[in-house]
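#struct-help
A.M.: can someone run this one for me? Single chain, 198 residues.
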Amino acid sequence: MSFESAIFYVFAALLVFAALAVITTRNPVHAALWLVLAFFSASALWLLLSAEFLAIVLVLVYVGAVMVLFLFVVMMLDVNFDALRKHFRSYLPVGATVGLLVLFEMSLLLVNATRASGAAAPAGSEANTRALGRLLYVEYVYPFEIAAVVLLVAIVAAIALTHRHRRETRYQDPAEQVKVKRADRVRIVEMAPEKRES
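D.P.: on it. Structure tokens below:
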């Protein structure tokens, strides 16, 4: 078995293990950490397939944007963070494990890149970013546009569902506030002084 095949099996096993940990863990913070490891493993597999652009997009979009969104949803679920901070040291083993595995994956990729740096690209091959662009915007332009319209409809529907009018919400009307007179807001009440009983 070659070194590249061994790296592939290591990353594939880590990806399956991290994906299983995401769906089996009960703690949402632990699930987020395992999901980060799964995304890094998937991007490493893309790198092994010489699809550098897709690997970078996977890291930037999913690890960057989707994980921020996921953690935002976790915060919106009204998680008791005082209890989480109380057991902060219990998260340390999971976080350290995920960090060490990501570091191990990156070192394997760097070792593989230094070994394959002497190999020249085959003649007539183009950059995979240009090939991906040609596939998306020339051959599959209509499905790509349909997917974009479906995503736009989903975004508009999500905004419409979350932006509903609430009855208990009170709004201020600046025009009515300007029209108010002193007599409408202030009432002077005269009270007789009280004597303390000694």
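A.M.: thanks! The longest helix spans residues 88-115.
D.P.: also worth noting: The chain has two domains: 1-116, 127-165.
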